[in-house]
Amino acid sequence: MPQTPKHVLLAGATGLTGEHLLDRILSVPAVSKVVAPTRRPLAEHAHLVNPVGELEELLPALKGKPDVAFCCLGTTIRVAGSPEAFRAVDHDLVVAFAQRARDMGARHFLVISALGADAGSRVFYNRVKGEMEQALRAQGWPQLTIARPSLLDGVRQEFRIGERLAAPLMRLIPGKLRSIEAGVLARALWRLALEEGKGVRVVESDELRQLGR
C-alpha cells in the first residue's frame, strides 16, 4: 500500500486551493510535519512550521527532508500588475521553489498548472504555464504530477472580475472545460500525493474532479 507522506512542504498555503489543501493535510494523523512558508502568519498548529516572509527570500533557509512538495502558487496579470510580474510568480518562483524542494530531498512534486498550458501557445498565460511545466520536467523529478484545472470555483480574498463573470457559465460546460471547486482540487492533489509512481503525470481537470469527489 502507498505510504502516507509524513513530512510535507507546501507553497501557496494562503491561496484559494492552498488553504483547502493545508486544512486537508493537517487533518491527516500520519502527517507529522508541514512546512508552509507564507507572507502572513497562518493559524498555529502542532504539526505546522510557518516561516513568514517573501518566498524567494525564505527558500534558502527552509529545512528538513520532505517526502512530498506541493506548489499552489499562482496569480493573474491583472493582480500581478504586468506580464513580467506574472511570469516572475507563475514561472520563476514556481521553478525556484521546486528546485529547493528537490535539493531538500523531496521525491514527489505536485504543481497546479492550468488548462491549456502549452509552451508553444500564442496566448501568453498558457505559454508561461507551459514553459513552467517544461522547466519542472528538466529538474529530473523521480515523480512529478502536473495538475491542469479549469477555472477555479471558490471565494478568493482578492476580487477577480473575469473569473466572477465566467464562473456561472463554466459550471455548465461539460468535460475538462467545466470549472472545478478549489476544495475538490485540493482533495484530488492529496489523493495524487498518495499514489506511487515514476516519471511525469499530467492530470486534466475532468480527472481532477473525479479524484476529488
Automatic annotation (TrEMBL):
Residues 12-152 form the NAD(P)-binding domain. InterPro entries: NAD(P)-bd_dom (IPR016040), NAD(P)-bd_dom_sf (IPR036291). This is Uncharacterized conserved protein YbjT, contains NAD(P)-binding and DUF2867 domains. It comes from Pseudomonas pohangensis.
